[in-house]
Amino acid sequence: MTASPLLLAACTALLFFTTFHIKQQGKEGERPKPVEHAICTTESCLKAAGAILDKLDQTVHPCKDFYQFACGNYIRRTVLPENMDVMSVIQNMEDEVLMIIFRALESPTLYRTGGSLIKAKMLYETCMNSDTLEDDSVQVLRLFLSERGVGHWPVLDADWSSGDMNLEWRLAMLFVHHTPVFFHMYADAPSFYSEYILNVYPASSPLGAKEVSGADRERIFEAYHKLLIETLRLLGVPEVRVQADSFDIIGFELQFSMITNTSQQCLLQANKEANETSQEDTALYNVTVDDLEYHIPQIKWSRLMSYVFRNLGLPLDTSSLYVMVHCKEYFRQLGTLLSNTPPRILANYMSWKFVLSYMSFMSMPFRQIFQDYTLLTPELKHSKLKTYTSRWKGCVSLVGSWFGNAIAAYYAKHGYPRDVEQKAKQMVSSLKSTFIDIISSTAWLDEESKNATIEKVINMKTEVGYPRNMLSADYVETFYAKLELSTDSLLKNMLKMSRFLVYNELQKLNRPVEDNRLLVDNIYKGPLQGSANYFATKNALVVPMGILRPPLFDLENPEYLNYGRLGNEIAHEMAHGFENIGLQYDKDGRESRWWSEEMKNKFWMKAKCFVEQYNRYVIDVLEEKNVDGQRTLHENIADSTGLKKAFMSYQKYVKENGKEPKLPGMEFTNQQLFFISFAQMKCEVRNKEGFEEYIGDSSSSLLQTPLRFRQVKCF
């Protein structure tokens, strides 16, 4: 089955049957006659009509290929840059936000706005300054590969001896510079905790990625080894040492990858337990540092913590510091591996991981070999890194990711109408009400499951826009007060930013969780965030400020456009609370069995429809490769049920407020425009690599069916 039959079966059946044919049926092949009513002639409506017509391909009948009808002109006019695999309407919107921030960062008056934005501008300028980037990165790197940074790299130091090896100090300094070699540590509070505690998770290895097997593993191994060798050569290491030490490092990586491989299921179980009140055997709950040292004695945890907190200037009381260790079997195996490995190999390996973490911020030769490596290993996590056609986009995105609060505060003042939040909150409330109506009338659900599901909808925490308290000048300036940057080196600034990130993470420990702080910590990405998000373990919905703008949302637009665009986006994310993954978590975000087995079985019988339907779809540009309906199930359910709820919410709006004026110069009804506006938010141009990114094994965040292959009515 190829794209066109699919679109006929999916989009036509779900969307246009109700709008083009009910009450308006004409002769075979004829377009239905539009319903006549008032026409909106405001500037906003004129722009909206023009934007819709600009994407439409009206030579295609909507009931033959709805996607081509809605997006044909957009596809025809959009040219993919050489180094990009996909362009979409949503990316175009994100680019507009990037441009607002770009203009601010380029403005000489920004220096008069406040300390945090001055620091943001410093980071931006060092990112844009290619001369300093090319001149000093190796020198800065070598400085940090010493006792002044993370410790000497034996392969670069002929005088290095095993007596120089202090495992806990090296691990601490690497952690301080945000290089988690063997484990991650961060402050978090599971749903049933009122204070932040230190969470310790296993790290991963590029050779142990669960998505990789067989011939792919050998290819990744060779690419990884090549990257290591070329890095050593660029740093001027003698060839004899390059060969000997690189084989030792890669050999250790292989041993480490075996531990990370065996810990995959354990880690999944640990994530489950972190949201349950039961305390099973895979994790250590609320242990002191001394207890941790008893269970995993190969690492002197009290010494390691002391190094970390002292280096960051944070107070440490190990008697009050409680730790949650996820997957203790992993750490036992790690301890054995560390005990059996010569100090030189450990020091070489840890230094290599540090260099690898910062290679993207070094001079062009290093960036080039790293880019070559990422192209050879698309299965790995780094494949999710954005590639921008212009350097300014990459630098603005970098600033946005590190100065999210400062940029959000600026954007709120200069590119963001404040009254949109209230309107968006009304939309969220309407969508919740529709969810409850649908649940109440769902015949196959029993009363107990209905009540529990309704309670989860009511209890769903929601943040729209950005928390007001986090946009205040006092909050923003206090947040960045301890950060010191320079104008002479991007690599130096990134190292300082990493320390700042770790400092802010650890200073939350043993503090009470603020009402919205935990939500922000977990899922806010600032104004550059281009989509709403549902967070299952918190039962929380976030609608970020970056999407409360055209084309997704416009206060001056008719509501059939807003509900078709933003309404569908929000309803889609809400629906994630009630698909195959979301149903594992209750109203408080705890994993629990809150549906009966009978109801779960009924759910899976209906979900099977999605799996079977999508398994039949073929992407012909990928040599007839099929979509994986099972892996994309949660997205496909959210798409279909979310759209239904958005449309029903709009119908409720019309019932309560009356019909809206139609757009000028169009023959479509308002209901038809709801679905056209929905579809046009999915317009995109994608090459072969872009499709592979969607359906291949590479991506953990894009495991969903290509946008135009979605929308099937099974529930």
Give your account of this protein's structure:
- This protein has 715 residues and is an alpha+beta fold.
- The protein contains 27 helices and eleven strands.
- The chain has a four-stranded mixed sheet with strand order 2-3-5-4.
- Helix 23 (559-575) runs antiparallel to helix 25 (633-657).
- It is globular.
| SS-based class | alpha+beta
**N-to-C terminal Cα separation, in Å?**
22 Å
Strand composition percent? 5-15%
- Please give the count of helices: 27
Biggest sheet strand line-up:
2-3-5-4
- Are there runs of 5+ residues with pLDDT below 50, and where? 1-29, 31-36, 270-280, 382-387, 697-715
Averaged pLDDT = 83
Considering DSSP H and I runs of 4 or more, what fraction of the residues is helical? 40-55%
Biggest sheet descriptor: 4 strands, mixed
Shape: globular
Question: What gyration radius follows from the Cα positions, in whole Å?
Answer: 27 Å
Keywords:
715 residues; alpha+beta; 4-stranded mixed beta sheet; 3-stranded mixed beta sheet; 54% helix
Concise synopsis of the structure shown:
With 715 residues, the chain is α+β, with helices and mostly antiparallel strands. It has helices at residues 3-21, 43-55, 66-77, 89-106, 115-128, 130-144, 167-176, 215-234, 239-262, 264-273, 289-295, 301-312, 328-339, 343-358, 364-376, 391-402, 404-414, 420-440, 447-459, 473-479, 490-506, 517-523, 559-575, 597-615, 633-657, 670-680, 688-695, and strands spanning 86-88, 183-188, 197-202, 283-288, 322-326, 461-465, 533-535, 540-544, 618-619, 625-626, 684-686.
